[in-house]
Amino acid sequence: MASLLCAVPRTTGSLYSILSSPFFKKPTRKLKPFFATSIPQTNRKCSNGVAVSIAEERETVRSPQLVASEYADLNLSDKFSEELGHVRIRQHVNPLRASLSEPAPVPDWCDIYSDSTLPLMVDIGSGSGRFLMWLAKRNLDSMNYLGLEIRQKLVKRANYWANELALSNIHFIFANATVSFKQLVSTYPGPLTLVSILCPDPHFKKKYHKRRVVQQPLVESIVDSLIPGGRVFVQSDVLEVALDMRNKFDTISDELLHVDKINPSLLDDEGWLLSNPMGIRTEREIHAEFEGAKIYRRVYQKRK
Ligand SMILES: C[S@@+](CC[C@H](N)C(=O)[O-])C[C@H]1O[C@@H](n2cnc3c(N)ncnc32)[C@H](O)[C@@H]1O
Predict the structure, then answer these.
(1) Which element (helix H / strand E) includes 285?
(2) 40 CA distance to ligand 1 centroid (A)?
(3) CA–CA distance, 89 with 19 (Å, rounded to integer)
(4) What pLDDT sits at residue 164?
(5) Atom 13 in ligand 1: which residue has the minimum CA distance?
(6) Could you tell me the distance, in angstroms and rounded to a whole number, from the CA of residue 249 to the centre of ligand 1?
(7) Could you tell me which residue, 49 or 92, shows the higher pLDDT?
(8) Are strands 170-174 and 144-149 parallel, antiparallel or unpaired?
(9) What is the share, in percent, of the chain residues with pLDDT greater than 90?
(10) Contact status, residue 247 vs residue 256, Cβ threshold 8 Å
């Protein structure tokens, strides 16, 4: 499968073997905003391979429908809502609340994964979990997935769905990542090969920037916990948030290498990755692109 999941081998090879990874394949196209002033009548290929006319998509499809179709093969049921009540989701949670300052309990990894020695990908702020489930389904025997999410109902539903899909390589934990990440991943028996932070809550007002999930201590914990050659993938549809993450990860350039040092042609003129390297868009990404937003992405690799 052409995705980044197999991109970080358990053994460390040459730094430049990254170039041959499907994860870093030179993109063949640049996605255009859906709401360009003149709407091109060309077809666009979704990450699930379905060709759609952009103009048609804009007129007849709403963004929740796009999410549903992009994740159609997960075939997730509505049973959770039927059995446990409608999942009403608060817009934002304040991660600085006292009740969220305790680290999440560390699970018994052997109970959670059928093979807890497999390489691990952690998605911070995993939202509904569909993105991670899509990946887990495609990499059943080669990778484990862990979603950290601060909204408990989303976590309950995601674990319910994972169970329904009989996925034994994925788990979601109700956790404030800024206080729980380090302890959780340090107890995981296998190597941490990939961490993603995708479209984190923007907390626009300056006085709330401290609520953003990407703070320097978390960045340092991520870098410390990754195996050499392990990767970090961050993205946002909000330029200011993307720049904030970029500045924080760029600061530790003695330990992290950005992909432009390996292959500059993967980036646009401003240093953002030209395309989504995962083979699947996150829900926020789908909504944002539908609205015409650009997604600002960076990928780093821990030095070997
Ligand atoms: C805008 S949503 C994006 C969800 C998903 N990554 C996507 O791209 O569709 C941000 C998610 O991060 C979660 N979140 C915010 N702060 C967090 C924290 N400190 N720890 C864990 N999750 C957090 C939010 O609850 C929310 O589900």
Answers:
(1) helix 283-290
(2) 33
(3) 40
(4) 94
(5) 125
(6) 19
(7) 92
(8) parallel
(9) 69
(10) no
- The atom of ligand 1 lying closest to the CA of 178 is 19
- Ligand 1 atom nearest 154 alpha carbon: 27
Atom of ligand 1 nearest to the CA of 100: 19
Q: How many Cβ atoms sit within 10 Å of the Cβ of residue 220?
A: 15
Distance 90 CA to ligand 1 centre (A): 11
pLDDT one-digit tens code per residue, 213-239: 999 999 999 999 999 999 999 999 999
* pLDDT digit string, tens, across residues 76-96: 877 666 555 556 666 788 999
- Provide φ and ψ at 158, rounded to 5°: -60, -45
Place of tokens 């489930």: 133
Residue 143, both tokens: 């990778």
**In 170-296, alpha helices (H):** 177-186, 216-225, 239-250, 283-290
d(CA 122, CA 1): 19
Comparing 41-50, 138-147, 289-298, the range with the smallest average pLDDT is 41-50
> 123, 201, 237, 244: which is the annotated catalytic residue?
201
Around ligand 1, the residues with Cβ closer than 6 Å are 93, 95, 124-125, 127, 148-151, 176-178, 198-201, 213, 282-285
Count CA atoms within 13 Å of residue 249 on its CB side: 27
pLDDT confidence bin for 271, thresholds 50/70/90: very high
Of the candidates 282, 275, 301, 303, the one whose C-alpha atom is nearest the C-alpha of residue 45 is 275
Domains and CATH numbers, the chain: 4-89+101-302 (3.40.50.150)
Asked whether 138 and 109 are in contact (CB, 8 A), the reply is no
Active site residue 201: yes
Phi first, then psi: give them for residue 148, nearest 5 degrees: -110, 125
pLDDT(11) > 60: no
One-letter amino acid for residue 161 of the chain? W
